[in-house]
Amino acid sequence: MSSRRRSAHPAIPAENREAITLNSTDSALSLTDDPDAQTVQVSAQVTKARRAAFKAKLAQLGTTMDAEFNRCIDEVLAR
Q1: Measured between alpha carbons, how far is 13 from 20 in angstroms, rounded to an integer?
Q2: What are the start and end residues of every segment in region (Disordered) (predicted)?
Q3: Where are the strands (E) in 8-60, listed by range?
Q4: Cβ-based neighbours of 3, under 8 Å, separated by 6 or more
Q5: DSSP H/E element including 59
Q6: pLDDT digits over 33-42, tens only?
Q7: Minimal CA–CA distance to 48: which of 60, 40, 36?
Q8: 3-15 burial, b for 16+ CB within 10 Å, e for fewer?
Q9: Which helix H or strand E contains 43, and what residues bound it?
């Protein structure tokens, strides 16, 4: 697996990425007019919420995301 970070969401085909990137100065289009853009926006909000909840849970446990990732990596490498 590559350690390179992906620059775009893997579920969005490359040819559609530009189509969902709306120009904020274009008043003819808005997120409410495009159901696909709404879906992407909601997906991003859900991802942010899940990440925040995960970080909060880790904070309760007294660890960090990096420490948790390292622990998972160590478990996989130990197999």
Answers
A1: 11
A2: 1-20
A3: none
A4: none
A5: helix 35-61
A6: 777 777 888 8
A7: 40
A8: eeeeeeeeeeeee
A9: helix 35-61
On whether the CB atoms of residues 67 and 61 are closer than 8 A, the answer is no
Could you tell me if 22 and 31 are in contact, meaning their C-beta atoms sit under 8 angstroms apart?
A: yes
Long-range contacts at 39-48 (CB < 8 A, ≥ 24 apart): 40/9, 40/12, 43/9
- 0.90 exceeded by pTM: no
pLDDT at 44: 87
At residue 31, what are phi and psi to the nearest 5 degrees?
Answer: -60, -30
7-16 per-position pLDDT tens digit: 555 566 666 5
Matching residue, tokens 């697996």: 1
